[in-house]
Amino acid sequence: MRERGFTLIEVVIAVAVLSIIVAAGAWAFTLHPNALAAAGDDLDSSLANARAIAASSGNGATLVFAPRTGPGGSSIAGFELRLYRGRPNAANAVTAT
User: Fold this and answer.
1) Which of 5, 38, 63, 93 is the least buried, fewest Cβ under 10 Å from its Cβ?
2) How far apart are CA 17 and CA 25, in angstroms?
């Protein structure tokens, strides 16, 4: 009969890989310690603004997560949140706010 389980080498390698991944994540959060809280605050304020626009206009509001772009249209890592007045269901229904 063949026994099932993991060898000590397999467990050590798995723990080492997991440790490297956790260390890289912790290092990334130390570069910008308040980035996550700031992103959450930005999302909350954008949602509040969208609700206010939707309540005051008859055409609602639209939130778009768009890829970030740099000078000349070059792509930058991450996304930006854009808020538009109106819904994109008619010609010229959406205007940036």
Assistant:
1) 5
2) 13
Q: Are 94 and 85 in contact (CB under 8 A)?
A: yes
Cβ-proximal residues to 93 (8 Å cutoff; 6+ apart), any chain: 59, 86, 87
Supply the pTM of this predicted model.
0.54
Tens digit of pLDDT for each residue in 22-33?
Answer: 998 888 778 777
Q: Which residues contact 66 (CB under 8 A, 6 or more apart)?
A: 79, 80, 81, 82
For residue 73, is pLDDT > 70?
yes
Mean pLDDT of 74-84: 84
Q: How far apart are the first and last CA of the chain?
A: 70
What is the C-alpha separation between 93 and 56, in angstroms, rounded?
Answer: 15
Please say if the pLDDT value at position 97 is more than 60.
Answer: no
Phi, psi at 76, each rounded to 5°: -120, 145
